Amino acid sequence: MRERRTLVVKAVLVKDRSQVGPVSAARSVAEDLGRVCAQDPGNVGAREQHAAALHRHAVAVRTRMRSTTGRERVTLGERLKAVCAQCADAATGLPDSDLLADEERRERVRGFLRAVRPEEPPDPFSSRRA
User: Fold this and answer.
1) What is the largest CA-CA distance in the chain?
2) How far apart are CA 9 and CA 44, in angstroms?
3) Is the pLDDT of residue 79 over 50?
4) pLDDT tens-digit map of 61-71
5) Taking the C-alpha atoms of 21, 25, 26 and 30 in order, what is their torsion angle to the nearest 10 degrees?
6) pLDDT tens for residues 18-40?
7) 70-91 and 22-39 helices cross at what angle (nearest 10)?
């Protein structure tokens, strides 16, 4: 079962590399991983990768937002808030549970949470922010 779950996650992540635009690629992979999580809630690897994909999507939206103005910037700002909320939902509970095997993986997910939750101060030493 573990190998099957890992294979499913890897298959979805390959799609990430096949997309053209960073925003559409991140969104597509996040949606696919969200479906995997819904169908197999016990797939911890999918949950972790779903949070990572949502974080990448937030970063891609913010990057695109910085280079645009007007109505599109407002639309992207709304999308950024939604993606950050989804990322927080996906990552909540993972780092504090025994689901992730090692501290490095737990800290990675904690980094996603710090980046997407506005009520928590960002880590000044982190190079990855949403």
Assistant:
1) 49
2) 10
3) yes
4) 888 888 888 89
5) 160
6) 556 666 777 888 888 898 889 88
7) 30
Q: Which residues of 26-64 are buried (b: 16+ CB within 10 A; e: fewer)?
A: bbbbbebbbebbeebeebbbbbbbbbbbbbbbbbbbbeb
Alpha-carbon gap, residue 48 to 34, rounded angstroms: 11
- CA–CA distance, 107 with 114 (Å, rounded to integer): 10
Helices (H), 2-128: 2-18, 22-39, 44-66, 70-91, 103-116
Give the Cα separation of 128 and 60 in Å (integer). 12
DSSP letter at 122 equals P
- Cβ neighbours, 10 Å, residue 128: 13
